[in-house]
Amino acid sequence: MSDDEYMKRAIALALAQLGRTGANPSVGCVIVAGGRIVGEGATADGGTPHAEQIALDMAGDQARGATAFVTLEPCARRSSGATSCSGRLVEAGLTRVVVACPDPSVMASSQGIARLREAGIGVETGLLEAEAKGLYKDYQPRMD
């Protein structure tokens, strides 16, 4: 499969959850290692857990050295002291993250990407961005 096909799978996962994630955006995440999908997920009903957490839980140790395809920039901070999605990706040892869309919140945009890059993870942005942006046209990010 190609990068486009992995991102299309992530978009399909997010699309299936639209309207079910509360105030959180519906995000899709696919983790690929050795040319095969080892983990995938979408933001759960009610908004937690996030897609990245679900995909990482499925991938387990296979996430080390893998690539994640994510429809929306992984969050850089979480409330209640929980580890952010970008933090989880760093802890899991991924080497590459492909992001379709930046976070639309002016308070959070680029923070998740910056955290990944600071940890030495290769980050690419904009793959199938036009397709993924349709998922977030009605998303109203919190500004706190």
Describe this structure in words.
With 144 residues, the protein is α/β, with parallel strands linked by helices. The chain has five helices and five strands. Helix 3 packs parallel to helix 4. It is globular, with a radius of gyration of 13 Å. 44% of the residues are buried.
Multimeric state: single chain
Main β-sheet description: 5 strands, mixed
Whole-number mean pLDDT: 91
Total helix count? 5
Order of helices and strands: HEEHEHEHEH
Question: What is the number of E strands?
Answer: 5
Tell me the strand order in the biggest sheet: 2-1-3-4-5
Give the overall shape, derived from the CA principal axes.
globular
Beta-strand content = 15-25%
Distance between the termini: 39 Å
Describe the protein's topology:
Blueprint: H1 3-17, E1 28-33, E2 36-42, H2 51-59, E3 67-72, H3 85-92, E4 96-101, H4 111-118, E5 122-125, H5 129-133
Parallel strand pairs: 3-4, 4-5
Antiparallel strand pairs: 1-2, 1-3
Helix pairs in contact: 3-4
